Amino acid sequence: MIRAVIFDMDGVLLDSEPLHDKVNLEILRSFGINADKTVTNPYVGRTSEALWDAMIRRFSIPEKTEVLIERQWEMVVRDLPISGIAESEGLTELLDYIERNGLRASVASSSRICFIDAVFDHLDLRKYMEGYTGAEEIGVGKPAPDIYLKAAEKLGVLPEQCLAVEDSTAGVLSAKAAGMFTVGYLNPTSEGQDLSKADRKVKLLAEIIDILDELTGTSFESESENRLSHEKTGEKSRKIEKNRKS
Asked: In this predicted model, what pLDDT tens digit does every residue of 196-238 receive, in sequence order?
């Protein structure tokens, strides 16, 4: 039974991908690189490290990855309040449904925590979301399952008790690898993303309400079962990290 909904952020809660495109291409232009978003699209949903490591190799950019990452996030945090970007259509309706039906809600985003905090303030999300998991909290980013496993562990629920909402290829693969029921959100500006591995696909976030109606029951687990869920999820996350280090 579904007990929690875990959202990707960029391209799902708000259509922030054009802002990221603008900033990333502006940084590339500062090095004399006249690229378009087809160059950065393959890194939608992935970490900043993956993006800038690839750009440095491809264009021989004479700068460190860490410096470009800091520049990127300073710019998007600065520009968000004046961007005019609103929440995705149907988001409030979906969040109200989640709250009304006693479900949990959280975010699992490849963005830096500074930008997640900025988005939470921009969209007034703290009254709905129990928290978030950001890129700095995990060792390996999407499409690895780590970030979704960590998000589930924080909520104290099993991954299979979670519905994930994603708009990118890497994000869908990440949520599926974590064992979550995954909804692919067809964001029109997230071009070139393969959502075929998702369990369902929607064009509007409010459509997820019908999916939740199908998947949720009326009785929730006892507190002891909830604690067991938390222990099992934490154990799964620790095993993945241990295997990766060995």
From this structure: 999 999 999 999 999 999 998 643 333 334 445 555 556 656 6
Left, alpha or beta for 163 (phi > 0: left; psi -120 to 50: alpha)? beta
Please tell me the pTM assigned to this model: 0.81
**CATH architecture of the domain formed by 17-82:** Orthogonal Bundle (1.10)
CB atoms within 10 A of CB 59: 14
How far is it, in rounded angstroms, from Cα 178 to Cα 142? 11
Strand, coil or helix: 7? strand
Using an 8 Å Cβ cutoff, are 204 and 90 in contact?
yes
CB 12 within 8 A of CB 167: yes
Residue-wise pLDDT for 37-71, tens only, equals: 899 988 887 889 999 999 999 999 999 999 999 99
Every domain of the chain and the residues it spans: 4-14+86-245, 17-82
- Superfamily covering domain 4-14+86-245: HAD superfamily/HAD-like (3.40.50.1000)
